[in-house]
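Troubleshooting: if your tokenizer reports a length mismatch, compare your output against this known-good record of 119 residues.
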Amino acid sequence: QVQFMESGGGLVQPGGSLRLSCASAGNIESINFAAWVRQAPGKQREMVASISGPGIVYYADFVKGRFTISRDNTENTVYLQMNTLEPEDTAVYYCNVNAMVSGSVRNYWGQGTQVTVSS
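Known-good structure output:
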């Protein structure tokens, strides 16, 4: 069974850094598209960053210059390096992946990882 699982969240002080990982399990041929999405308490989910198959990246304005999305094609893992974290970045972070599985593109969500930025 294919699944993606986030890790790397935690409690960090303002200005600190965290690196989130979205690791795959199961027989995945490739990742066509991946995105990090976050949801803060009482707010809707919002796109943070994405990376396409050819490696084209997108960042929401509120993370530009602070976050970096990357992908390991060998391990079928997606990362989100988060620097200069702010209290407003506190949220549950989810990865959303379009992966090629058994010849078809399928969409997967991870279970989420909590990021809390507080002094």
